[in-house]
Design brief:
Order of helices and strands: EEEHEHEEEEHEEEE
CATH superfamily of the largest domain: Translation factors
Strand order of the largest sheet: 1-2-11-10-7-12
Distance between the termini: 88 Å
CATH architecture of the largest domain: Beta Barrel
Shape: elongated
Radius of gyration: 28 Å
Length: 245
């Protein structure tokens, strides 16, 4: 079982296929750095701790500052831990890239759905509604009866009623990876994913497609080029001619 990755939802666009068909895709920018690992010998289970986006130290609590200082890692805004198998442990400090997935693979994408505020039962649960005429008065969009008489004398739990719509963690399963841009660290999946643009989402191998072809094991790592050292040219001093008196 490979690790999941954290990505940023860039937005949606249309992508043309070789046969001329245009399909809607969501562009996701992978931003995942392995901060720490969990092993069976030390912690009793195997997992990796993934960090998302760089954070300013002044925005961290003292326990978080100590955690990153102990690991000698750059502070991150979000930390997520994902269970993995022993052969898929990734060393701390590694950066996971878009090549963690392959074209044609199915993935599950998890995010927080768009919040749409307070909504009635017709918008929230697709109720039919009451009659427009035939004596219906001020009940056209109501939910109807919610309980009974003496028994049970209460409203059952999970009864569909008006309330907040959206703003919940949602997972869209079996989305197809259409294209990958390793240079810009982008993964394009067919269809829509939950959340706003620039929001955080989690991408993982499809749980219901365990026999499908997946990306590299233990993970697709991004090659981070070391910054080039600045070299200063040493200019030779001009030759001086001695003047005899």
């Amino acid at each position: 079982m490979r690790t999941a990755v954290i990505a940023e939802k860039v937005g949606m666009m249309g992508l043309f296929q070789e046969n001329g068909d245009q399909i809607p895709v969501t562009v996701l920018k992978v931003d995942s750095t392995v901060v720490d690992t969990r092993t069976k010998e030390k912690d009793g289970y195997t997992a990796v701790q993934i960090g998302y986006k760089t954070a300013k130290e002044k925005h961290l609590a003292k326990p978080q500052k100590g955690h990153f200082a102990k690991l000698k890692q750059e502070p991150k805004r979000v930390l997520k831990e994902f269970r993995v198998s022993e052969d898929c442990l990734v060393p701390a400090g590694s950066v996971i890239g878009a090549n963690h997935f392959v074209v044609g693979q199915l993935v599950d994408v998890t995010g927080v759905s768009l919040g749409k505020g307070f909504a009635g039962v017709m918008k929230r649960y697709h109720f039919h509604g009451d009659n427009a005429t035939h004596g219906a008065s001020r009940t056209h969009r109501s939910g109807g009866s919610t309980g009974n008489r003496e028994w049970p004398g209460r409203v059952f739990k999970n009864r569909p009623m008006p309330g907040q719509l959206g703003n919940k963690q949602t997972t869209i399963q079996n989305l197809k990876v259409v294209a990958i841009d390793e240079a810009r660290n982008l993964v394009m999946v067919q269809g829509a994913v939950p959340g706003y643009d620039e929001g955080m989402v989690i991408i993982q191998d499809a749980k219901k497609r365990s026999k499908q072809q997946v990306g590299p094991v233990p993970a697709g790592l991004k090659v981070v080029e070391a910054p080039k050292a600045e070299t200063t040219e040493v200019k030779e001093a001009p030759a001086t001619t001695e003047v005899k008196e």
